[in-house]
Amino acid sequence: MPRRRSPKRPEKLTHVARAVDRPSDVGILASYIAFPETFVSQAALEKFDGAGEGKYQIGLGQGAPRPRSLQADALAAAAAEKMAFCGPREDIHSLMMTAVSELLSRYGLSPADIGRLEVGTESLVDKSKSAKTTLMQLFSNNSAMEGVTSMNACYGGTAALFHTLDWVESSAWDGRYGLVVCGDVAVYAPGPARPTGGAGVVAMLVGPNAPLVVESKLRSTHMENAWDFYKGDLMSEYPQVDGKLSNSCYIRAIDKCFHRYADKFERTSGKAFNLADAQHAVFHQPYTKLVQKSYARMAFNEALREPAGAYKALAPFAHLADTEASYVDKDLEKACLAATKADFASKVYPSTFAGRNLGNSYTGSLYAGLISLIASQSLKRDDRALMFSYGSGLAASLYSLRVAGSVEEQRIACDLHARLAARVEATPEAFSKAMEMRQMTYGRCDYAPQPHPAETLAPGSYFLSRVDHNYRREYARVPPAVARAVQKPAAPVEQAVRQAVHMAGRALRR
Amino acid sequence: MPRRRSPKRPEKLTHVARAVDRPSDVGILASYIAFPETFVSQAALEKFDGAGEGKYQIGLGQGAPRPRSLQADALAAAAAEKMAFCGPREDIHSLMMTAVSELLSRYGLSPADIGRLEVGTESLVDKSKSAKTTLMQLFSNNSAMEGVTSMNACYGGTAALFHTLDWVESSAWDGRYGLVVCGDVAVYAPGPARPTGGAGVVAMLVGPNAPLVVESKLRSTHMENAWDFYKGDLMSEYPQVDGKLSNSCYIRAIDKCFHRYADKFERTSGKAFNLADAQHAVFHQPYTKLVQKSYARMAFNEALREPAGAYKALAPFAHLADTEASYVDKDLEKACLAATKADFASKVYPSTFAGRNLGNSYTGSLYAGLISLIASQSLKRDDRALMFSYGSGLAASLYSLRVAGSVEEQRIACDLHARLAARVEATPEAFSKAMEMRQMTYGRCDYAPQPHPAETLAPGSYFLSRVDHNYRREYARVPPAVARAVQKPAAPVEQAVRQAVHMAGRALRR
């Protein structure tokens, strides 16, 4: 007869908190986005696939319709409706290595400045070894670095960011920067989902006294077990997708997170939360139209809390609250979109720029949105930006950033508009060939991947050079620059020289 | 001509810290380990495989040699040299669901008490959807729960624990418990590595005022890019293994982490760190012999820092410090083992119990060691336990726990010795058949997994009932108890009834 166990609860959670020093204003100090140099246009894809004109562009909201107030944004107009893609020589590791090395060099950081490196991705090329360890190749004299890979569909980047923020605020923090790297290579089987692919990796430096402070006390989360998008077929790079379910999961996550955020806001500040309290809203962006609907849905949720408030026009739909029917009710959707048209243009659309140019970068998508917002020069001191992260499966969080300093340095270092404009357009044929080549080599070993027909690699980019007979992956780097382009390095400091050489190389290339 | 970027560093890290409340004594409040009910004995496997007698038992240190001081430990003697295994109806999710539901019920916790759930595993059955989201099925009225899956070989559990500790100390903490779930199903291709498999999942409750406080300021890490063990063949459940490389990586990680921990200890306490400052040492345990060598190696490292100290006998080997040669030098190894023989028996061996009975549970291994230590009743108030976590690829940390309260409740709730003793022994034939069946179904869809010949599932265990045509995984549960066993439920509270019923069911089964 076994001993009876005592079902006693652990000691109560009430405790006498000890006052200790905790760094303040922890957030994002620096950012950079790496992406492939090749893209295919949605307009060309529509034609090639024999899809109706505008299906990919308007149906997915990739590019059109552009709010009237932004018609003058020549860069946005020129660069809308593009999807980035990788061939067989680019994988998630090579993009991440490029992002990290560029971030370090563009901000003049040494590898020794980094005390933690967290990765978020769902583009796994190994079921055990993390992408984080591959990145350790860039930190050869600094191996004392916590962090591994966080995984849950498109949410891994947010998990990695939260882990890093918490570390800086914890007693384990050693005073060094945290580095968060997130992004994916999003590819789909041939068919209607294929134009919703994309690629990109964001690297962010985290620490105290940041110009973009994360309001950690407000972060709000919703998680559930769902099968809206997943990768259960281990033998394929392509996901299993239930688009309709994914949309309703996304909208339900918006509902849950909005109310939880608003509740925390109320508890913390003593006043009700309204969308007017945020000057910007950035979303995980599978495609642009969903972003527009999501912001519109937030207005509906605000109307439920404040029926006589700014969105009183939506109050008559209150009976649809918390119902599945509300996810597909066309009248409600139309009313929400109408009620938020102007706000969407000014508060949301600027952050969709990278998404419209790269397609979906999964874990990188929300942070590509932040970099777009920085590039738009619309972030003012004391502004608040809502950040909504969603990963199928599902995991979602709504949190916010407060602008506490200038992000001009980040805008210049990232140089988003010019770098996107300098990419090379590939034909749909070249894109299809690249996808075929990826599929042929996926999961294989003992081969050296070949460039696809339209492949271009920027100076300084890393690429996959070989997968050996035992699945070990080897990487090489395109020389960071053409030395002869530099006539007089400004200073003999190696770091500065490398950077100047690199920049000159990029200038030459264009 | 693109704009020149300014290579300015972000604002300096020096900052005026703001004093805020941070919870104290954050650590492990409760723990539980779930494992399969079937095991195969290493002695029977040796015979079956035609390996030399003692090869698996002594060569791997699984079971023998037992230190003389522990000969009296009848439980250890009876249960040494066993390897747990799962058939096709048990996967990482089912083990985790069992671990979480048992932890909640044995400690009388409600799902609403949990504010964060972090998973560490490398037994991925999906490349996008995290095991964490599957566990959300157990928290149907509480979806506000941060955390996803942390992945890096056997290190994911430690990453998940660190994330959760940091969260409790951060401004984002909402006052609820954190829950860490880590473990794996370790299987190998037929051949010499197969007897180094195993299975198990540990669940741990994290919060302030814990009886096992994590000394976060001392945690020390070493990471590098290595190919010692990984899973690059996505089509197989089996890893690629380079055992020789793995051993030297493990030992190098011990060296690096030991010195970093000792440095931090010195900075924090103002005095030198010696192994005598820790009364216990728990290791990631691929097999027991490596644990013995690792503790011995720590003594060598201490001798390098204190040539006239407790391990002065090892000082003459100082010339081997930081050399690859030192990893394989037999004289050094022999001297280290001799110098630490008594300490190994008293400070390390008690924590190897679960590992010797379950085999390797990868991310669960170190924490199965902690549960073994708790079961050994050798933890005294104010004791310190060193914890060494290693994941191939590689990621390693050395940290420590301080005993600040009684762990008796955890010992009773986990009931390790009795539960291990109550398992069912399978023949090597049944074990081989179960492995074959796993291999046949791995990566497949549209099937209902069948029980293997020796399958036994404990009351209350979850199991995989179906993988549908689109790779969606469905789970069922063995009824938690035989209802007729309960004559008078103690109280009408549903939770209490469920628990009583469950306990009674287990008692009946034995």
What would you note in describing this structure?
2 copies of one chain form a homodimer. The first copy, chain A, has about 500 residues and is an alpha+beta fold. The first copy, chain A, has a single domain (about 25-480), classed as Peroxisomal Thiolase, Chain A, domain 1 (3-Layer(aba) Sandwich), CATH 3.40.47.10. Helices cover about 35% and strands about 20% of the residues of chain A. Chain A has 17 helices and 18 strands. The first copy, chain A, has helices at about 40-50, 55-60, 75-80, 90-105, 130-135, 155-170, 245-270, 290-305, 325-330, 330-340, 340-350, 355-360, 365-375, 410-415, 415-420, 430-440, 495-510, and strands spanning about 20, 25-35, 40, 80-85, 115-120, 150, 175-185, 200-205, 210-215, 220-225, 230, 240, 280-285, 385-390, 395-405, 425, 460-465, 475. In chain A, strands 2, 5, 6, 7, 8, 9, 10, 13, 14 and 15 form a 10-stranded mixed β-sheet that branches. A 3-stranded mixed β-sheet of chain A has the order 4-3-16. The radius of gyration of chain A is 23 Å and the shape is globular. The N and C termini of chain A lie far apart (about 80 Å). The model of chain A is unreliable at about 1-20, about 65-80 and about 485-510 (pLDDT under 50). At the A-B interface, β1, α5, β6, α6 and β10 of A face β1, α5, β6, α6 and β10 of B. β6 (about 150) of chain A pairs antiparallel with β6 of chain B, so a sheet runs across the interface.
CATH superfamily heading of chain A = Thiolase/Chalcone synthase
Question: Rg of chain A from C-alpha positions?
Answer: 23 Å
Q: Oligomeric status of the shown chains?
A: homodimer
Number of helices of chain A: 17
